[in-house]
User: Fold this.
Amino acid sequence: MTIAARPARSGLAPVQIPPLRPADNAHPPFKIVSWNLLRRTGAAVDDVAALVAQEKPDLLLMQEATRAIGFLLDRIGGHYAWAPLPGRIHGLAMWSPTPWPAPPRVITLPSGALVHRVCQILDLGAFGIANVHLSHGQMLNRRQLRRIVSELPPRAAVLGDYNIVGPAMIPGFRDVGPRRPTHAMVEVLPLRLDRCLARGLICHDHAVLPRGRSDHRPIVVHLGPAPEAHVPGRFKGMAAAVARLRRGDGSAARVRRDPPG
Assistant:
């Protein structure tokens, strides 16, 4: 798959959440399942097909998916996209029972010393979804997250294996996924590595599922667009301030172009 990258924007400027359109509330919450499969020795096609049959998601996100997971299409049909990590046998994958408005695009992320990371971004129209498997370095994975956020529409969610310990601290995004541990380091230390951060969306329900043959437990979220009243006041205020500054800059530019006299 060709990896397309858009120019990175500097900083994390506040984003204006657009008002809801009638069509945004025309459908029930969108059900998303995210699962790190554990490459080679973890969940296989049969396990993924069983999860789909059980949960019936609108979208399934997978991390550490190998080429063999693509045989899912032969088992259950639907639509599938795979983005392998450069130089690795595994990567990110998405499956949906229905066609996407446009194929997921793939962006490159700041790289660590050993593993080069990518991210899948899907535009669903009403909001965007990012499928992630971030690095283990606690500064690097937050840099990668900021890069991803800069590519997302105003209403968006980031799901997957964050490998983050503690809060992600991304302005404008709320941690709306389940709070239970999803991974046990060396079967001893429980960690909540699999998460969902969202902006301009409401999580109507969430759950952590049994892990099966993987070392991660799948997470489930039911997302829908948030009314403007649910957008944090500080976030809206920051966006309004930026809009005022931009209008002011535009007025100043017009004055410079059209001096009096």
User: Anything to note?
Assistant: The radius of gyration is 20 Å. Confidence is low (pLDDT under 50) at residues 1-10, 233-243, 250-261. The longest helix spans residues 233-257. The chain has four helices and 14 strands.
